[in-house]
Specification:
It contains 9 helices and 5 strands, in the order H-H-H-H-E-H-E-H-E-H-E-H-E-H. With 219 residues, it is an alpha/beta fold. The protein folds into 2 domains: 83 residues, Methionine synthase domain (Methyltransferase, Methionine Synthase (B12-binding Domains), Chain A, domain 1); 125 residues, Cobalamin-binding domain (Rossmann fold), CATH 3.40.50. It has a 5-stranded parallel beta sheet with strand order 2-1-3-4-5, with helices on both faces.
Length: 219
């Protein structure tokens, strides 16, 4: 039964059933499973959701549902992690935000959920974030990666302004920069001096893993 409940958590998440996922998670907690054991199973489920999305079996709406389930379950588990004093070393640290002039956040929030499900620590700066705020966040949090999102073509230029601000402060070489959003392309990312372009949330996570490894190899 104890093993079955972990499998049931993963299956219910993959099947996008919030009520069942929450129920099985609570049952696992009652059975004495460590929060991180449960989170690892949830992360496996999120990866399956991501694979189905890449195959065209799931759509953006399905990713959003999976994201909401993951967030709901994490609201249950995070207090337990604090209580038991589990020390979790993040895979990497990411500062992310939607650039100045743009208030769209669905894509950004999906990326955040997928990053957290894959062991990243994420500092969410929110929307309409000016270059100065990105710079302040890099100084304060010392991330491995800076992520920027934009949905409007009129705000794309602000991604370049963030990179220029990082360069002016002497911070650009200490971080990797990934950009994404509906109007963004690989060509545009190269033109503004970003390190990578994330076509969607699933791809962005894989790229972030590679960027962190590349950054650490260079240190």
């Amino acid at each position: 039964m104890s093993v079955d409940v972990l499998s049931s958590i993963k299956d219910s998440l993959v099947n996008l059933d919030m009520d069942k996922t929450i129920d099985f998670v609570r049952r696992a907690v009652e059975l004495g499973f460590k929060p991180m054991d449960i989170i690892n199973v949830l992360a496996d489920g999120m990866r399956v959701v991501g694979v189905r999305y890449e195959r065209g079996e799931y759509f953006v709406s399905d990713l959003i549902v999976a994201s909401e389930i993951f967030k709901e379950v994490m609201s249950i588990l995070e207090p337990l992690i604090t209580r038991v004093g589990e020390v979790v070393r993040p895979f990497g640290r990411v500062v992310i935000g939607t650039v100045e002039g743009d208030v769209h956040d669905i894509g950004k929030n999906l990326v955040i959920t997928m990053l957290r499900a894959n062991g990243f620590e994420v500092i969410d700066l929110g929307v309409d974030v000016p270059p100065k705020r990105f710079v302040e966040a890099v100084k304060q949090h010392k991330p491995d990666i800076v992520g920027m999102s934009a949905l409007l073509t009129s705000t794309m230029v602000n991604m370049k302004r963030v990179i220029e601000a990082l360069e002016e402060e002497g911070l650009r070489s200490s971080v990797k920069v990934i950009v994404g959003g509906a109007p963004i392309t690989e060509k545009f990312a190269r033109e503004i001096g970003a390190d990578a372009y994330g076509e969607n949330a699933v791809i962005a996570v894989d790229i972030c893993k590679k960027l962190v490894e590349e950054l650490h190899r260079g240190k």
